[in-house]
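sorry to bug you again but im stuck and you know this stuff better than me. below you get a single protein, a line of residues and a line of whole numbers that encode the local backbone shape. mainly i need to know what kind of three dimensional shape the backbone takes. anything you notice is useful, everything is just below:

***
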Amino acid sequence: MAKVHYADLWGLREGKYEYLRENDLISTGWQGLAAVPPYFFLVPKEFDLYGEYSRGWSIADALPLSSTGIKTHRDHFVVGFDRADLEERIGAFADAHLSDGEVRESLSLRDTRDWSLSRSRQILRDRDNWRQCIKPYLYRPFDHRVICYAGELIEFPRPAVMRNMVVSNIALVSVRQLVADTFRHVYVTRALGDGNAISPSSREYNHYFPLYLYSETKKQEPVKRGGIAVTLALFESQPGYGTRKPNLATEFVSAVANKLVLTFVPDAKGDLEGTFGPEDIFHYMYAVFHSPTYRERYAEFLKIDFPRLPLTSDLGLFRALAEKGEELVALHLMESPALDHPIVKFPVKGSSEVEKVRYAEPAEGRPGLVYINKAQYFEGVEREVWEFHIGGYQVLEKWLKDRKGRTLSYDDVSHYGRIVVALKETIRLMGEIDGLIPSWPIE
């Protein structure tokens, strides 16, 4: 193996020039790098804990079927804030009384190498009812929209995974590689999901790991894209739809069962006395990945691959962490009863139009304010909550900025207040999760 040496210079340009003028290859203070497989990094890395970390299960091995999220290439057209808004656009697109030129101009659409507006309009009109394709959509953290999930409208629909998300299901969302310094890249959804739902970076493209897989019992529809026929299954959420099985590797389930000395049941939850189920594993996983110590301790490794899950043989610890994970999941799905107790106010009447979003430090004895325009604000937002990130997004700021120029409805104001509660409770639960784990590594 070659010997790899490393050195770096930090500071202003003149200081770097001065160093380079006075030094050469011999006098430079090189640092030797160990060639650590499988990555062989060309920069220094702290790998002392890699042996400990590598004993955990990669989520890509534990939940073997996954894919990146949906990439539409035309979000402005195929994704809507609400169903009425989206139906109006798709209806205009399918309207045979409008010419291709009129539709192209009014909806700001253009042909691409793999997509033809004219052909897609015809395919959509041939559907029995395109309105059945409108589905809930995770667009950004706590930003739930709708999408017309029709193959002729979307560049990359990811059907192998996403077909499992139009029925009763839940999926972990994470990334394989980080641009950010800190691992915050884990989320959850019951809906179809965007490729940038928790991170805007192409290097942090989001992967979806559904917990359940459904048998293919619905008809499949051929779609032509770029002259090539592809098939997109049309799945509807109906009682008795197909059968499902857990998307969990047999070896992974056996490893958990052997650790806990419990019997696996293939659906929902076990009693955690003699049995455990897929959702118990999911909740345990979600709790561990939200541990601040886990994120700090394994920071170097979380930057370069999917997170790994350490298993425990302590049934009491597993049970406690699964309980906390279930609370976190309910918060992030906006299903927790804790969200029904608001902690912020929107006290000033006005246009409710989002113009310029900014955070105002609280005056003495007053809570922090999040302004949406010069006069109106949300009152009672702590800085820690305001600055909380999920993936690459500062949640409270991102949600509002994506609505710049829009008027917040009563439901929007209420939803924003619920997000504040969810984030505050998330911070609390992350601390409690750390408090439950007696030592690292988890045993």
User: Anything to note?
Assistant: The longest helix spans residues 410-436.
